[in-house]
Structure formats: C-alpha cells, structure tokens
C-alpha cells in the first residue's frame, strides 16, 4: 500500500472505519470497562462510576463514534458535551488520567486493529485526558489576578 492509499486517521470517517464502526467501538468500550473493573490501579477511577456501567458504556461508545468521525450518536441522545466540564465533578489529576489511559491502552491492545491505528488512537485520547487534568488543576488553583 503506497502512502496515497493509506488511511488518513482523523479525516472524515477513516478512524471510525478503522475501529470497526459502532460494533468495534462498542467492543473497545466493553473491554475498557472490564479492565477498569479488574485492574487494581484503576480502583479510584472505577469508584467515580456508578455500580451499573450500562449508561457509562452507552455514553462512551456513542461519544467515541462521533469523536472518531462516525455518526454523532452522543449528541443525538444526550446533547452537547464538554469533556472537561463533564468531568469537573471528580478530582482528576495525573494519577487518574494515567489509570484511565492505562485501561484504554490495554483495551486498545485487545482489538484486532492495525498497529498504526492503535498508536494513533491512544495518542489522540491523551489530548482530552490532558485537558481534563488541566481543567481540574485550574479549578483548584486560586485566582492570581
């Protein structure tokens, strides 16, 4: 495959397709929450969720579909979302971000996706994860003006 035929992740629905569409993303989310339930390092972030993960699974699946260039299913069902604002109710710092990304890295590794897409996706997921931490830090720091 020459460079002109390579998928251009992040453009149109290339990432959504590389993830296997809705079903592939749903499998990623199912694996993610299974890992979160079983990984000792994820105890704190798991405690931020309800016992029943049905709604969390639905929301994350729908969000990722649109975020990866597919149908905007989250918007259709739940409306607009600001990732940092949504997560503002929890104390999220670097350890929580790293635990979340660690669970996601393991879930991504389980998927039958191209290695380049796996790398791309984890790199892209770090961006909103870092923004959540930055927003939480800004809320904790006193106004310096």
From the structure above, extract its key features.
145 residues; 65% helix; transport; oxygen binding; mainly alpha; metal ion binding; Globin
Polypeptide structure, described:
- It contains 8 helices and no strands.
- It starts with 13 loop residues before the first helix and ends in a 5-residue tail after the last helix.
- It is mostly helical and 145 residues long.
- The chain has a single domain (12-140), classed as Orthogonal Bundle (Globin-like).
Outline of the structure:
The protein is mainly alpha-helical and 145 residues long. The chain has one domain (12-140): Orthogonal Bundle (Globin-like).
Describe the protein's topology:
Elements: H1 14-18, H2 21-38, H3 43-46, H4 54-67, H5 73-78, H6 83-86, H7 94-110, H8 115-140
Helix pairs in contact: 2-4, 2-7, 7-8
**Which fold name is given in CATH as the topology?**
Globin-like
The counted number of beta strands is 0
Work out the radius of gyration. 16 Å
**CATH class designation:** Mainly Alpha
What is the terminal separation in angstroms? Answer: 55 Å
Average per-residue pLDDT, rounded, comes to: 90
| Secondary-structure element order, N to C | HHHHHHHH
Strand % is under 5%
Number of domains: 1
User: From the helix content, strand content and strand pairing, which structural class follows?
Assistant: mainly alpha
Major sheet attributes? none
Q: What's the number of helices?
A: 8
Pfam families: Bac_globin (PF01152)
Protein name: Globin
Family: Belongs to the truncated hemoglobin family. Group II subfamily.
GO molecular function: heme binding; metal ion binding; oxygen binding; oxygen carrier activity
């Amino acid at each position: 495959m020459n460079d002109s035929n390579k998928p251009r992740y992040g453009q149109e629905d290339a990432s959504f397709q590389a993830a296997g569409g809705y079903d592939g993303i749903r499998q990623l989310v199912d694996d993610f929450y299974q890992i979160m339930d079983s990984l000792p390092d994820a105890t704190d972030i798991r405690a931020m969720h309800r016992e029943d993960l049905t709604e969390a699974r639905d929301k994350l699946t729908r969000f990722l579909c649109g975020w990866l260039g597919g149908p905007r299913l989250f918007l259709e069902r739940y409306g607009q979302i600001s990732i940092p604002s949504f997560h503002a109710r929890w104390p999220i710092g670097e350890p929580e971000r790293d635990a979340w990304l660690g669970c996601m890295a393991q879930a991504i590794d389980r998927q039958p996706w191209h290695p380049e897409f796996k790398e791309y996706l984890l790199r892209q997921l770090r961006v909103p994860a870092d923004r959540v931490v930055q927003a939480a830090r800004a809320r904790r720091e006193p106004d310096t003006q």
